[in-house]
């Protein structure tokens, strides 16, 4: 399914608050915070010339977030950044002076952090980031997971010292339960989705993702003409689209939001013209994108700066995982988790459909940018779908110009 953006706000400027969160100045500040993380290095950017030739476009570049901060996902940039910001803000309030990230590991800051508990709901990756951020600053973390989250992903979060709570139902049920319990206990919810009256912290999470875009723009030989990014609640898609719109203005690349067909809350919101909660159906293999209601902040941004919305099927996602693990020609091998290659799957589907090609002006001159948002965050599931263990896939490391 494919739908050009027909919202009345399409191409209008971003809301000033969103522009402040996602602008160049804010992104530079995120990068400054990252410079205080001992394991921070830019993630690789790979050229896929073989795939580009097959699809009939000039270039395809993929940013590989499977190497991000030891967590294997772009989410490492968001939750932990928000936790650090919140701890430093609380320290500033209590110490009655501005406390900078340079003081993150001081005794004073850790003493304050030790009395704080952060909480969130997660499909896996965001919870790991929040838990890692809490461990880094000495705070406590309680992470809520729904019944569909694998034991492997739960264990990956728990290793950061987080308390884990299982919730029956879907991701959206776990979001509601996390908010309820946190309010009751006086904890701070660090969610990557937003709802009425709760926008600032999800905005900080999205702000963390802008560092990934700045890295990519430095690594790319020329700016992209088209960007395909997958969406769950829409946070990463909105962060990437919003930052590109602010950085390039009228010269920004064409931006396409890619949803799983079984959890297409942004596609259905675009069709309705307003945020909608869709019915929970059969689970999607793209587990990190299995969300049934969009983030309000993300929707507000995407309704203005996304050019189109589309969906991909289960077989599309699995095919991309296998294609990246067994590339042709000079393309590097890349480990992409079940949700990691959904944006690329959108490109492949678009390139195979003449009507979508025409609508997006996708041609042999197009320079396409996509993001592998996660590596094999569930190695057992990856091996089932690809037929190889992730450690057996010889991943090319480093950036290709």
TrEMBL record:
Keywords: Lyase, Pyridoxal phosphate
Known EC number: 4.3.1.15
Family annotation (InterPro entries): DiNH2opropionate_NH3_lyase, TrpB-like_PALP, TrpB-like_PALP_sf
Enzyme class: lyase
Cofactor(s) it depends on: pyridoxal 5'-phosphate
GO molecular function annotation: diaminopropionate ammonia-lyase activity; pyridoxal phosphate binding
Entry annotated with the keyword RNA-binding: no
Cross-referenced Pfam families: PALP (PF00291)
Cytoplasm found in the keyword field: no
Domain Tryptophan synthase beta chain-like PALP: 40-359
SUPFAM superfamilies registered for this protein in UniProt: Tryptophan synthase beta subunit-like PLP-dependent enzymes (SSF53686)
The name this protein goes by in its record: Diaminopropionate ammonia-lyase
Native source organism of the sequence: Microvirga lupini
